[in-house]
Amino acid sequence: MKLYNLKHPDEVASFKQAVLQSLGRDNGLFFPLQIPKLSGIDGLLDQPFVDRSSLILQHLLGEELGNELVDQLVRSAFSFPVPVVPVDERISTLELFHGPTLAFKDFGARFMARVMSHLIERGDHTGPLTILTATSGDTGAAVAHAFYGLPDIQVVVLYPNHRISPLQEKLFCTLGGNIHTIAVEADFDACQSLAKTCFTDGDFVQRYGLNSANSINVARLIAQVTYYFEAAAQSHGKAPVVSVPSGNFGNLTAGLIAQSLGAPIKAFVAGTNANDTVPRYLHSGTWEAHDTIATMSNAMDVSSPNNWPRIEELFATSLRSLRVELRSCTVSEAETSAAIKALYDRGYLSEPHGAVAYASLVKNLEDTESGIFLGTAHPAKFWQSVEQILGIQVELPEELIAVEGKPVLSTTISPDVVTLKALIERLW
Ligand SMILES: *Cc1c(COP(=O)(O)O)cnc(C)c1O
Fold this sequence. Notes:
By secondary structure, the protein is α/β, with parallel strands linked by helices.
């Protein structure tokens, strides 16, 4: 698979290079030169999830990595179920939270960690490798778990202090070993910009083998393409409208790539919380990022989504109109609570992110259509909100019980790049 830098289209990279570099010159995002359509879609949809996912990723990466290796990586990364659960006659949810850290980010992070570990093993990367990633909650957990204990890799995770749930924090800040967690006294956008600043220092990047494992890395993006085919496969021959709860818009980018590959998906709904830069842009044509607002669906508290240029590119190169085709919607805190209640009344326990997607779908689904919203996190991960809204007690799954009593090992810093760099230097 060949990719080009959206800022400097003459910079072309292989998949391996793009994974190792994560960003191109001037922090440009890598984007596939071609998205070749899959043939035999119907047969593909009949396959079980892991077999199908392996074939899809072989189609994209097999030429470069070899089909056998791609198959191995997929089987070891996607080792948990991906059920579709009906909520009512026309609406179902695709549950993406059955991995080890109970959110959809396990798909991308586990695949990426396995790819990188393989590249180190075969000598495609030598010297230090430092994963530096900013998280609004779930990325940190997924990346930390996916890379925990891998030889020759140090992981530094930045997150906004006091703005992620205490259990979310326990899930990734209690590991130790090669996982270094840093609570920054600022919001998520400031964390993201701290990380970006480190990446603009070429010498520093080189010396410590800096790599971002957040959703700008193509390994994550490509892995996430697979479950959109599951949504289509479970829709009984009728192309669904798929609603994606969006923050950095990596998940939606993967969905649009799946559709370009041939996944029968009728349309997408981009649902956001009050951090609604994209819905406002699609309605008004003006891009205007406001200050980030803290909400219940905190993994989506992003006002400058870093995957957006990829979505623009995808529509531009296929001559499709974003503002005509992409449905979008902003969901308030009150509407999120109401959606959690409405789902519970239908016998389904959700959480704020899934509820934003559900509310967005209900508002954007026509009478003749059927829809699927993505369940991106386990309700127990956000039990405080869920319990407060429903007045019930949420049972914790074993993954959370195991970390509940462990001490948080994070270092707290102010949003200062010099402090951060000194900290990274001390790891090697
Ligand atoms: C990260 C995350 C999102 C947002 O996904 P993006 O790819 O950043 O748009 C939604 N829900 C949950 C639970 C998340 O962790």
